[in-house]
């Protein structure tokens, strides 16, 4: 009993290999893209047994100790020292039947079997987390020493406070919400608000690799948009956490670290005789008003620059205004 992998004689096919599984009277034949699921599950396209060539260009013959169908999967056990076990799974996706060839390693990568720790973050006996009142299905932080409070937040979905000031914020996103908000421009405005917080982050309940499996939008557009936002707002990381459970765990650890840092900053400032850092959020901060063109033109002439009486100021004049020492009113 052998599992046979041969080259696909069809030059126009995107799946370069044929897989012959010794099950049934004539066996099962699939087109696939590799000879074994080593790094990821392999998509297999089922074809008629007659498509197996009379003189196949065999790449590999794998001797099997077992090949048994169990429900919607075929268990394949190879007779060799490593890479022995694999499964051919029949499932449905995108409204049609699909077949995947997977190994224990690739299955674990697709659905990580991890147990989140129950140790308290930073040794905190209890952490109060503010949950935005508009959050429909909020994290419960089950298993952690957390007390949640529901009230409106000016930005983000979860926050921690110190001395009644917000010191850490996390915005939660599913992958569809992330993509739609990125394409509509809402994500850029949200990151602008988060950037005004002392510490902020965006957590995504999915893997980054799922971006490149999107079918209703070009994956490159999403990847480029996220990269541009990382550059524009380097202080607001966008973290992909694979699952909702892992995203909840990361949110708890991040907010606990922000709370502890706010405490230590206040203590350090008091010990060295400095005023405590003032924490503001986006709506409490009023930006410095931009000077008028007339003011900059008058300053430039006093500083020895040649400027016109009308029209726009040259970029180097505005940059010189910004680089000049603070002006006394």
Keywords for this entry:
329 residues; eight-stranded antiparallel barrel; alpha+beta; single chain; six-stranded mixed β-sheet; 7 helices; elongated
Please characterize this protein's 3D structure:
The structure is a single chain. By secondary structure, the chain is of the alpha+beta class. It starts with a strand and ends in a 6-residue tail after the last helix. The protein is built from seven helices and 14 strands. The protein has helices spanning about 105-110, 175-185, 185-195, 220-230, 245-270, 295-300, 315-325; strands at about 1-5, 15-20, 30, 40-45, 60-70, 75-80, 85-95, 95-100, 125-130, 145-150, 160, 165-175, 200-205, 240. About 25% of the residues lie in helices and about 30% in strands.
Mean pLDDT: 84
Query: What is the string of SSEs from the N terminus onward?
Result: EEEEEEEEHEEEEHHEHEHHH
Q: Bin the helical content.
A: 25-40%
Rg over CA atoms, rounded to whole Å, is 30 Å
Strand order of the largest sheet: 1-2-3-4-8-7-6-5
User: What low-confidence regions span 5 or more consecutive residues with pLDDT below 50?
Assistant: 279-287
Determine the N-to-C terminus distance.
Answer: 91 Å
* SS content category: alpha+beta
Shape: elongated
What's the number of extended β-strand segments?
Answer: 14
Assembly state of the chains shown: single chain
Q: DSSP helix count?
A: 7
Largest sheet: 8 strands, antiparallel, barrel
């Amino acid at each position: 009993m052998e599992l046979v992998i041969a080259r696909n004689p069809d030059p126009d096919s995107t799946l370069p290999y044929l897989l012959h599984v010794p099950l049934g009277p004539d066996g099962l034949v699939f087109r696939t893209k590799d000879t074994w699921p080593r790094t990821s599950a392999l998509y297999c396209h089922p074809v008629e047994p007659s498509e197996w060539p009379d003189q196949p260009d065999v790449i590999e013959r794998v001797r099997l100790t077992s090949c048994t169908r169990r429900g919607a999967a075929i268990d394949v056990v190879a007779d060799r020292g490593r890479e022995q076990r694999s499964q051919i799974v029949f499932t449905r996706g995108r409204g049609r039947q699909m077949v995947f060839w997977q190994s224990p390693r690739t299955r674990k990568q697709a659905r990580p079997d991890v147990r989140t720790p129950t140790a308290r973050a930073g040794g905190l006996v209890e952490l109060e987390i503010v949950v935005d009142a508009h959050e429909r299905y909020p994290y419960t932080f089950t298993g952690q020493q957390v007390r949640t409070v529901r009230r409106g937040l000016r930005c983000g979905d979860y926050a921690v406070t110190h001395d009644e000031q917000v010191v850490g914020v996390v915005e939660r996103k599913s992958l569809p919400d992330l993509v739609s908000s990125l394409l509509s421009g809402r994500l850029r405005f949200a990151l602008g608000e988060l950037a005004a917080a002392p510490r902020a982050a965006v957590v995504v309940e999915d893997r980054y690799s799922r971006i490149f499996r999107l079918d209703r939008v070009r994956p490159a557009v999403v990847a480029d948009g996220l990269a541009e936002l990382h550059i524009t707002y380097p202080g607001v990381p966008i973290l992909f956490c694979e699952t909702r459970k892992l995203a909840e765990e990361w949110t708890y650890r991040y907010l606990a670290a922000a709370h502890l840092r706010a405490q230590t900053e206040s203590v350090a400032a008091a010990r060295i005789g400095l005023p405590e850092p003032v924490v503001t959020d986006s709506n409490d901060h009023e930006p410095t008003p931009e000077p008028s063109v007339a003011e900059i033109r008058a300053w430039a002439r006093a500083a020895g620059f040649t400027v016109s009486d009308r029209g726009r100021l040259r970029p180097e004049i505005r940059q010189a205004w910004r680089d000049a020492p603070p002006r006394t009113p």
